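Notebook, p. 212. Picked up where the previous page left off. The plan for this session was modest: take the two constructs that came back from the sequencing core last week, fold each one, and keep the raw output in the notebook itself so nobody has to go hunting through shared drives later. Recording the first one now, exactly as returned: residue sequence, then the C-alpha cell string.
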Amino acid sequence: MNEAAVERRLAAILAADVVGYSRLMGADEVGTLRALRAHRSEVIDPTIASRRGRIVKTTGDGLLAEFPSAVEAVACAITIQRGLASRNVSIAEEKRLTFRIGINIGDIIIEANDIFGDGVNVAARLESLCEPGGVCISRAVRDQVRDKLLVALDDLGEHQVKNIARPVRAFGLTPNAIAAAPDLPQSAGIAASWHARARMLAASAVVLSIAGAGGAWWLLGAPMTFPRHAGGMAPTAAPVAPARASIAVLPFASLSAEDGSDYFADGLTEDIIAALGRFRELSVIARAGVLNYKGKTPTPADVGHDLKVRYVVDGSIRRTPEHIRVTASLTDTARSTVLWSEKYDAEPKDIFAVQDQITRRISGALAVRVTSLELARSAAKPPNNVEAYDLVLRGRDLLGRLTRSNNLEARRLFESAIEIDPTYGSAYVGLGRVHRFAAIQGWAQETVETLERAADLARKAIELDDLSAGAHALLGQVLVQFGEYDRALDALKRAIDLNGSDLEAYRGLAAVLLWRGDTQGAITAGEMLGRFQPDLSEPDAFHLAMAYVLADRGADAIRILRQSLDRNSAEPNTNILLAAAYAQAGNQPEAERQSESVLNRFPLFSREGFGSLLREASQREKLGAMLKKAGL
C-alpha cells in the first residue's frame, strides 16, 4: 500500500507572541484577556486577512500565520506593530500588550490545516530574538523585501538556534524604525471582506467541533455501563495546602548536534521537577507551566514575576553516544543571585546518578532558607537498563503532543521499554496513560476494556514501586472514569502524599472531588493545579469552572471559561457551561446569547445528560436549573 504523499509548499511564516503575558495575567486576568481580544479582532486578525495571510493556530498569548509572499508578511507585521503602538499610547506601561514578531520563509509541511518544518521552527526562534514591539526576520526574508519595502533593517548577525543545524542570520526592525517606515500600500485582489472571512472560519470551526466531539463523551454524559457507588462517605478535604518555598525548573536546553535530541533534555527536566516535588516543603511549577520558556532566555526576575516563584533552575545538556555533559544552576529570582551552579560529566549509564546529584545540590542550597527541608534521596527509582529509560523519555515526549498517531507511537516505545526491563515502573505508567488517552479520546474500539487495561498497568507499576506518585495518580484518574470516586480519592491522596507538586495527581483530584460532591475541595485542588500550570487545559478548566458554578461563583467560572475558549472556541462542553455560568451570575442577556450559539452549533446537546457524573442529585438538579434558566 502506498503511503499518502506529503503536502509541501513554500511560504512565509509569521510567529507572534505577547511579551510578559504571564505577568500581565497575574496582575489583571480579565483586563488582559479583554485587551488581547480587542487587539486581535480590531488590528491583528483583519490585518493578516487583508495581507492574504492565514492564521494557522493560536495560543493563549500568540499565533502562527502563513503568507504566500514574504513582502506581504513583513508589511503585515509592520502594520500590526504600528497599530498596536498607537493603541498603547494611552495605556499605562505596566498594562500594555506588546508583541514580538518573527518571520521566515521556507518549505513547510501541511497536515490537517497545521504546518510543520524547519521554516516554522526558525520563525519561532526569530520571534524569541526580537525586540519587544519590533520585527525580526531571516536573511531569506530580507533578500525578498530589501528592494520592495523602504525600511531600515539592523543586521543582528548569526545566531545558533535550537534544533536548527546551521546558524540563522537575523535582521531586526526596531519600534522606532517601524514608526519611521512609510505607509505601505494595501494588497489588491482580495475577494472577500474580513467579516466575510471571519464568518467562513467560524462555520468551519463548527464542523470541526462536531466532527471531533467524540473525544468528550464522558463529559457530555453519554450513557456507559461503568460501576458506580450508590452511597459513600461525606466529602472530605484533600491535602492541597501550598508549600512554603516555590521553584520553577526551566526546560533544559539541548546542545546536542543529533536530530531529535530535545526529548532527552525535556525528559531530564521533567524528572528533576518530579524529584523536587517529593520534598513537601517545596512548591514546584509543573512542566506544562514552564513550556512557554522553551527556546527562550528570560531573566530570573522575569520568571519570578511571571510564575510567582522565588527560585529558578536552568541548565543545558550536551549528549553524544559516549558522553553526557549536564550544566545546571539555581538562582534567587528576587535578587538575581546565583546560589549554586555546577557542571556534570558522565557516561550515559550514569545519568541517574547525575540527576540525583543535581536534585540533592539544589535541595542543599535551599536548605538554609527553608525550615525542616527533608534531605532525602528524591530521584525516582531508576531502571536497570539505560535504553529503557531512553524509550520512556521518548514516549513521554509524544504524550505531551497528544494525537492519535503520537499515542500509537508512544505505545510502541513504552512496550519496548517493558520488554527490555520488565521491572521498570515508569514504563508501565506511560503505557497506562496511552491506554487511558485512547479511551477518553474515543480512539479505542473497546472503551471499558481499554480503561481496565490502564488500571492494571497502574497497579503493576505500584507493585514494582509503591513510592511512584505517577502510578498512584494514574490509578486514581482511571478509577474516576469508572465512577469509583472513593477509591480514586484514596489513590490520588496517596500520590500527593508522595509528591506534593504532581500535576496529574491534582488534575485527577479536582475531577474526583467535583463529581463526588466536594465542591470546595474541587475548587481548592483546581486552583492549586492552576498554580502549578498557569494555562489550564480544557478539561481542567471545565472541572474548576463547574465547581465555581455549583459554589455560586459564576463570575469566576466565566473568567476561567473565557480563557479556555480563547484557546479553543469550538469546544462544546466549555460553551455549554459558559451559558450556565452567565445565568448563575445574573447576566441573562449573555446567557441567552450563549445558549442560542450552543443550540446552533451543537444540536445534539441534552440538558439531562450534561453533568450526569455528579454523584449528588441536588447538584445535578442545580446545574440543570441553571442550564434551563439560560435557555438550554
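Okay, moving on. Second construct, recorded in the same format:
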Amino acid sequence: MAANAVTEQDLRRELSEFHDRYPKLRDDDLFVLWFLRAFVTEDEHDALKALCGGPGDKSLDAVFVDDHTRNVFFVQGKNRQGVGLKAEDRTEVEAFAQLAPAVCGDASAFRSLMTDLAPEVAKRLVEARERLKRGYRPQFHYVTTGRCSEAVRASASRIVRACEAAPSFEVIDGRRVLLLLSDYLDGVAPPVPSLDLEIESGGNIKPGGVLQRLDLRTDIESWVFSISDETVAQLYESAGTRLFARNVRGFLGSTEINRGMGETLADEPEYFWYYNNGITIICDAAQHISSGGRDILRVANPQVINGQQTTRVLSESFARTPRASVLVRVIRVPRDGAAAKPRAFENLVSKIVAATNWQNEIRPSDLMSNDRMQIDIDRQLRKLGYFYLRKRQKKGEARRAVGSHHFHILKKEEVAQAVAATEFDPAVVREGKERLFEERWYSRVFQTAAPEFYLNRYWLLRQVSYVARGYPERAYAKWLVLHFVWPYLAPVVRSADSRSRFWAECLSNSAALTPLCQAVALTFTVALAFFRKKRGQGAKAQDISTFFQRKGLDKEFDKFWKSPANRSKRSFKRAWARFEKGLSAR
C-alpha cells in the first residue's frame, strides 16, 4: 500500500478525472458527484442523475433516493480552495438546514419552498417527499472542503431537530472529506451505514455481559460478545457485500471449511459457537446502548475483516436451521491523527486481516487484493468495460457483481502472469503465480495503473494460450513464446487507436487475428525444435517440464531463432506483416 496519507492533491486528481468524463459540470457539481459516489452509491450513473444544482436550486445540489436502504439524501456541496482553510458562513449552513422543515414539514411549508424553484429541482423534491411519506429516512449532508465551527453546526442542528420527522443532519468538513477519500481510494465506498449488533440474550442463553477493553496508548477500543444467527442475517441483508469491502477475499462458496460449517449448522447448531473462529468487525465508532428492551452495540462504518465465510453461511442457513450463535469481536480504530502516522489505520487493518484469516487458506494474492494499486487498476479497467477480479471468489459471486453490465472479466493472477512473462525472464512465471504477489516481484509487476500496460499483454497472452490449446508440449513453452512475441507487438499497439483496435479484435475473436495466431504457432514450432536440440541426450536428457524452467532460456532461444537451424523466420515475418496490415486497415 501507499506510504502516505491522502492530501488535497489526491482529491484534486480524482475531481480532475471526473471532469474528463463530464467536462460540462461545474466544479461544485463535480465535487458533489464525487461525494455521492464515495458516500452514497456505487453507481456513478445514478449519482449523476441525482445532481440538481444551479440557478434556482435554493441551497440544494443533489437529491438521491435509495430505495434499497429506504433513505433520501439531500446534499449541498462547497468545493473551497484549500482543504480546511475557509470557515463556512453561518447563513449558508443554516439556509441548507432550513430545507429540512420545508421538505419534511406540512404542506404549506413545502409549497413555500417550491415557489420560484427550478423545475428540475422541484420535480426531484416532489419525488423525494412521496418517499418520505412512505417511511423513507431523510438525511441532510452539508459537505465542504472548508471547515465548520461547532457553534455553526449546533445552530443548524437545532433547526433540523425542530422537525417532527427527525431527519438526520451532518456537516462533513474538509478533514472528514479526506477520510472519505482515503476509504474511496481503498475501495471502501460507499461506506456501510450505522448498524445495530444485538447482544445475544434470552432462551437457553444466560449472558454474562460484554467484555470491553480500551487501550489508552492507542485509543483502540474493543468489545467481545455473542450474537445470534438472526442478527448476522440482518447485518448481511442490510449492508450486502459492502460489509466485506476491506476483506481480502470474496465469498469462496463450497470450500471444505464452508461445507463443514453448513453441516454443523444442520446437525448440531448448538455447538457452532464452540467450533467457529468468530467474526471480527472494525468500525469508526461504537456505542453500547439499550433500545426497546434490547442490549445493542451500535457501530458506525462497520467492516467485516474476518468472518465473511461465516457471515454468508450463517445468513444462508438461518431460514432453514435452528438458531445458532457466533462470537463477534468489534474493534474501534481511531481515524484522527492519520497525518501524523500516514496509513496507520490501513496498515493496522491489513495486519489484523493477515493474522486472523486462517481457516480458509489465505494467499499472497489475497493479501494484496485491497492494495491501492489494485483498486486503482480495477477502477481504470472498469471505465473500459473490464471487470478486474482482484478478490478471490466463486464465479457466481463475480457474475452478480458484474450485474447487467457487459464486462469482460480479467483475473488479477492472469494479468500478473502476462506482465511477468513479457517484462522478466519467463522462468519467473514458471515459479508460480502466487510468487508474483510477494514483495520481491509485486511492485515490479504492478508498476502503474495505466490500463493499456496490462491489456496489451493480457490479450497477447490470450492469443498465445489459444494457439497452445490442445498441444500438451506447447503449454510448457507458452511463457517463452509470449516473451519472444511481445517485442514484436509492443510497437504495433503503441498508439491509442491501434491498441483499441487490437483489443476490439481480441474481444470479438476476429479473423484479423489469424495471421497473429499463425506467427505464434510458428514460434511454438521453433521453441519445441529448440527444446529437442538443447535438452541433451540419453539418461541426462531433460524432461520438457523442467527444461522450460531454466533461467536465461530466453537469451538462448533468441540465438537459436537467429541461427540457420531456424527455417521459419521468413514465414514468421510474412505472417506478422499480414497481421500489422490487417490491423492498420481497420
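Notes on construct two before I forget. The CA atoms of residues 229 and 369 lie 28 Å apart.
Flagging for discussion at group meeting.
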